[in-house]
Design goal:
Oligomer: single chain
Distance between the termini: 12 Å
Largest sheet: 6 strands, mixed
Radius of gyration: 21 Å
């Protein structure tokens, strides 16, 4: 009888150790960007969105970096510095999440994040101040054993509509995710995301609701998509493109790696 008790206690201890180990073995980083106080078309709740998402990732054990109201230089330096920190981490497997709330546009089928304090002296100067998402994808490729999640709560409207810049198109263009990457858009390609009536945008409000559930990231975004579609009566349908190579979690199940337990 004693050996059975000892075996059960050993299994319980193993369960506890492995439960804690899952998620600890994976270095997890989050860069949260919220741009709100634009000179043209300021937004109303992106700073709230960024603060709430930062808090959520911190509670989930991520190393969180937050940028708010970033100009062109600050945005570039912040993103470069974030991926430099990820690359230096000693862990063999890493998860990097980049969340962006703010204006973004597509120009000639390329997607750009819009910093604050953009100058409009010339069309080329205007484009040069934007942040091309392709630069972000290049940084991802420079770190081995890295899974990436990019969340774009953008496209709330076109801040340059009627400005005479004929290159700018509505919404964002579809993107093919680099290897081991999931890109989540608040709305479908070419669509417009809604601000909503609460302290958070419609998309981020529902993301915050499900982000701490111990389900795969794909399931998180499926739930978010369903909730956003229901609230907006299908006027806004979130969209993702994924090339993730395995199951990834924001909130890992505590017993993910525990073997099946034999029942006596």
């Amino acid at each position: 009888m004693r050996w059975i008790v000892f075996l059960l206690l050993s299994v319980i201890t193993l369960y506890s150790i492995l439960g804690r180990a899952y998620g600890v073995n994976l270095d997890r980083f989050a860069l949260v960007i919220g741009n709100q106080n634009y000179q043209v078309a300021p937004l109303k709740n992106t700073l709230n969105d960024a603060e709430a998402i930062s808090d959520a990732f911190f509670e989930l054990g991520f190393r969180v970096t937050t940028l708010t109201d970033a100009n062109s230089l600050t945005l570039r330096q912040g993103i470069n510095g974030f991926y430099a920190e990820v690359a230096k981490a000693a862990g063999s497997q890493k998860l990097a999440v980049v969340y962006y709330a703010g204006h973004a546009i597509q120009i000639n089928h390329a997607n750009y994040l819009i910093p604050l304090n953009i100058q409009f002296e010339s069309e080329q100067e205007f484009v040069d101040q934007l942040y091309n998402l392709s630069h972000l994808f290049e940084l991802m490729k420079s770190t081995n054993e890295l899974q990436n999640i990019v969340i774009l709560d953008a496209c709330r409207n076109n801040p340059f509509e009627g400005s005479g810049n004929v290159l700018v198109s509505q919404g964002l263009a579809p993107v093919k995710a680099p290897s081991a990457t999931l890109i989540a858009f608040a709305t479908e390609p070419g669509g417009i995301a809604l601000d909503g009536r609460s302290d958070n945008g419609v998309y981020t409000k529902h993301l915050l609701k499900y982000i701490s559930e111990s389900i795969s990231i794909e399931e998180v975004f499926k739930k978010v998509r369903s909730a956003v579609a229901k609230e907006t009566r299908n006027r806004q349908i979130p969209w993702e493109h994924s090339s993730l190579l395995g199951e990834v979690y924001f909130s890992p199940p505590k017993n993910k790696e525990v073997p099946n337990i034999v029942v006596f």
